[in-house]
Amino acid sequence: MLEARLTQASLFKKVVDAIKDLVQDCNFDCNDSGINLQAMDNSHVALVSMSLKTDAFASFRCDRNIALGINLGSLTKVLRAAGNDDVLSLKAEDAPDVVNIVFESSSQDRISEYDIKLMDIDQEHLGIPETDYAAMVTMPAAEFQRICRDLSALSESVAIEVSKEGVKFTCTGDIGSGSVQLRSNTNVENPKESIEIEMTEPVALTFSLKYLVNFCKASGLSDKVKLKLSAEVPLLVEYPLSEGTNSFLQFYLAPKIGDEE
Amino acid sequence: MARTRSKPKAAATKETTPEPPQSTAKPLPPSTSNPPKVFVLPRHTSHESRIVTLNNPANGAPSRYYFCPSKGFYEFTRIAAPKKDCKSWLITPEKTSDNVAKEQEAQAETTTDNADTEAGLGGGYLTNKADMFLATPIDLLFLILPALAPKAGAKQGDKQYFLSFEDHLDNLASLSRQWKVLLSQHPSLKDRVEQRMAAVCDTVTAGDETMYRLSTDKLTRVLTRKAERMCTQGLPPSMEERFVKTALEVPVMNVLRSDTFTTTSALADSSATITVESHTTATSFTSTTDDLVAKPAIHTPPEVPHLLRLRTSLTYLSSSYLPPTLHPLITSSRTPDFSSLDTHLAALTKLRAEALALRSISDNISRKRGYDEDEGAAMEREEKKRKKEEEEKKKKSESRGVKQLKKVDTSGMKKLSSFFAKKAK
């Protein structure tokens, strides 16, 4: 039996919106720690990992581990019916055929209820170890989104270099080349605008811009984004969910190695 | 090789190696080369009755006939069980008490040297085949016809001569030796032969002697009378079904091309069985094809079924009892007038051909892809179609982002599974 209650339906909406452009169907694994999700894109070069811990919910109850296989397109359709400030409840039996979603609008005393048919999805889970990254950049999510969008107009891929000077995004395309360099700075007035760079050693890696642009769809979820890089391992793009909890939305992307370098 | 639960074969072969147990039962006597046969003979025949070998009138092959001086000739009809049925006769002596049986056995032993009689069930005998020979009366006329008929070599135009009765008898005797013996032993037979001969022959009197010559007209008349007698009782059901009913079936020319089915139209004056059958057909179609049955494509004239039956009987008679030389004479004779039957049958044949042509057209329409062997292929096709549709549906449900990511050049990018180990489930 699963009963999860989110005070802000918009959170779940945004999470699903951010994931649905990367994967089609995925399992929402529910257990007593919360709702977790891990899925790879079709070409298996990117991975999305979401974790909504119990403290992100207004109330949470899950007696048994339940995997809710949901088509994200269908889920998006239903979530579109929710108002941003609605209270969202997810309910499911122990061996469910459907997941029940209820939106309650506190102001209008309106309750809407939807059932989504579940599907059996065979997905492989990857064990992602705790990694000490060589470089970690924390920056405003909007800034990262802008850089990715701007550079994607020029090229397919971007080189991210983290050094003492800061972080540099460089790209070279048919029409020319471009780069954006950010220096580490601390904005006391508006801490959201701060850029923090922690680095143990310089890193330079190349990534597909299209994937990065795709990840940036999660920008609405959080003011900040963390980029974690180490040589020859996937980039981790992390958006913290609902401040103060351990909930997160993470994207992993394999670096481009070889002919680009 | 697949492993089975059966034991290895060695044990089985061991079992068969010991010598077969000595059978204590008495060995059965070998079957006789000339097994007894079962005959059904007419009652009240004279003691002088015997089985004679005469030439079959139709094919000239020597065949057995039962001859009784007072009652005449009988032919044998063999009634056999179907070949698949393992039927047999158990023939036992009439008196079953032991003494009598022993007596009979003793007699049998003394009279014939047949050792088989003492073996088996109280002197009984088990035949291999369940054949039964039934003696049925045959007109003497048929037996003498080969002698009267023109010789095989004679041409159509050759005129037959009038011959004296004695000459005809000589002819007969020359055909089969047994005729000679019979005629000499039984003078009464001669009178009967002459009587029957007179029935089918033109006669002229030359002096005090009467000369005979086969008359086709008379023969035809006699045969027709016989055939008519056959018809009055109705033909045997199998013959009726095969030669009369199916021959007279009127194909119903339906207005709708799609269902041209043939059905028997009610015969106007049929025998009892036929009427019943046609009634049932009529009732069964009342709901759908009432009007069709009411106006079949062609009406069966009332005299036609009878004529057809008559002709069937005549054909049967001539094929089984007349020498082949007489066949053309009979078929060309005009006494029973079959012309109306012929025209009707010709019309029927034409109709049937039309119905067949029509049906083959409609078959072409309705049988499109109707063959059984296509069923598997159709299912495969269905499966493929379903899969394709599913795939298409899946593709449609893909979000724009997913579609765009498919176009991304992922060369040089390793799969994530090469970085992170798969988690055991």
Automatic annotation (TrEMBL), chain A:
<comment type="function">
    <text>This protein is an auxiliary protein of DNA polymerase delta and is involved in the control of eukaryotic DNA replication by increasing the polymerase's processibility during elongation of the leading strand. Involved in DNA repair.</text>
</comment>
<dbReference type="InterPro" id="IPR046938">
    <property type="entry name" value="DNA_clamp_sf"/>
</dbReference>
<dbReference type="Pfam" id="PF02747">
    <property type="entry name" value="PCNA_C"/>
</dbReference>
<dbReference type="GO" id="GO:1903459">
    <property type="term" value="P:mitotic DNA replication lagging strand elongation"/>
</dbReference>
<dbReference type="GO" id="GO:0000781">
    <property type="term" value="C:chromosome, telomeric region"/>
</dbReference>
<keyword id="KW-0539">Nucleus</keyword>
<dbReference type="GO" id="GO:0035861">
    <property type="term" value="C:site of double-strand break"/>
</dbReference>
<keyword id="KW-0238">DNA-binding</keyword>
<dbReference type="GO" id="GO:0005654">
    <property type="term" value="C:nucleoplasm"/>
</dbReference>
<dbReference type="Pfam" id="PF00705">
    <property type="entry name" value="PCNA_N"/>
</dbReference>
<protein>
    <recommendedName>
        <fullName>DNA sliding clamp PCNA</fullName>
    </recommendedName>
</protein>
<dbReference type="InterPro" id="IPR022649">
    <property type="entry name" value="Pr_cel_nuc_antig_C"/>
</dbReference>
<dbReference type="GO" id="GO:0035753">
    <property type="term" value="P:maintenance of DNA trinucleotide repeats"/>
</dbReference>
<dbReference type="GO" id="GO:0000785">
    <property type="term" value="C:chromatin"/>
</dbReference>
<dbReference type="GO" id="GO:0042802">
    <property type="term" value="F:identical protein binding"/>
</dbReference>
<dbReference type="GO" id="GO:0070914">
    <property type="term" value="P:UV-damage excision repair"/>
</dbReference>
<dbReference type="InterPro" id="IPR000730">
    <property type="entry name" value="Pr_cel_nuc_antig"/>
</dbReference>
<dbReference type="GO" id="GO:0045739">
    <property type="term" value="P:positive regulation of DNA repair"/>
</dbReference>
<dbReference type="GO" id="GO:0043626">
    <property type="term" value="C:PCNA complex"/>
</dbReference>
<feature type="domain" description="Proliferating cell nuclear antigen PCNA C-terminal">
    <location>
        <begin position="127"/>
        <end position="256"/>
    </location>
</feature>
<dbReference type="GO" id="GO:0034087">
    <property type="term" value="P:establishment of mitotic sister chromatid cohesion"/>
</dbReference>
<dbReference type="GO" id="GO:0030337">
    <property type="term" value="F:DNA polymerase processivity factor activity"/>
</dbReference>
Automatic annotation (TrEMBL), chain B:
<feature type="domain" description="Ribonuclease H2 subunit B wHTH">
    <location>
        <begin position="142"/>
        <end position="328"/>
    </location>
</feature>
<dbReference type="Pfam" id="PF17745">
    <property type="entry name" value="Ydr279_N"/>
</dbReference>
<feature type="region of interest" description="Disordered">
    <location>
        <begin position="1"/>
        <end position="38"/>
    </location>
</feature>
<dbReference type="Pfam" id="PF09468">
    <property type="entry name" value="RNase_H2-Ydr279"/>
</dbReference>
<feature type="compositionally biased region" description="Basic and acidic residues">
    <location>
        <begin position="378"/>
        <end position="409"/>
    </location>
</feature>
<feature type="region of interest" description="Disordered">
    <location>
        <begin position="96"/>
        <end position="118"/>
    </location>
</feature>
<keyword id="KW-0539">Nucleus</keyword>
<dbReference type="GO" id="GO:0032299">
    <property type="term" value="C:ribonuclease H2 complex"/>
</dbReference>
<dbReference type="GO" id="GO:0005654">
    <property type="term" value="C:nucleoplasm"/>
</dbReference>
<feature type="region of interest" description="Disordered">
    <location>
        <begin position="370"/>
        <end position="409"/>
    </location>
</feature>
<feature type="domain" description="Rnh202 triple barrel">
    <location>
        <begin position="40"/>
        <end position="139"/>
    </location>
</feature>
<feature type="compositionally biased region" description="Low complexity">
    <location>
        <begin position="107"/>
        <end position="118"/>
    </location>
</feature>
<protein>
    <recommendedName>
        <fullName>Ribonuclease H2 subunit B</fullName>
    </recommendedName>
</protein>
<dbReference type="InterPro" id="IPR041195">
    <property type="entry name" value="Rnh202_N"/>
</dbReference>
<dbReference type="InterPro" id="IPR040456">
    <property type="entry name" value="RNase_H2_suB"/>
</dbReference>
<dbReference type="InterPro" id="IPR019024">
    <property type="entry name" value="RNase_H2_suB_wHTH"/>
</dbReference>
<feature type="compositionally biased region" description="Basic and acidic residues">
    <location>
        <begin position="96"/>
        <end position="105"/>
    </location>
</feature>
<dbReference type="GO" id="GO:0006401">
    <property type="term" value="P:RNA catabolic process"/>
</dbReference>
<comment type="function">
    <text>Non catalytic subunit of RNase H2, an endonuclease that specifically degrades the RNA of RNA:DNA hybrids. Participates in DNA replication, possibly by mediating the removal of lagging-strand Okazaki fragment RNA primers during DNA replication. Mediates the excision of single ribonucleotides from DNA:RNA duplexes.</text>
</comment>
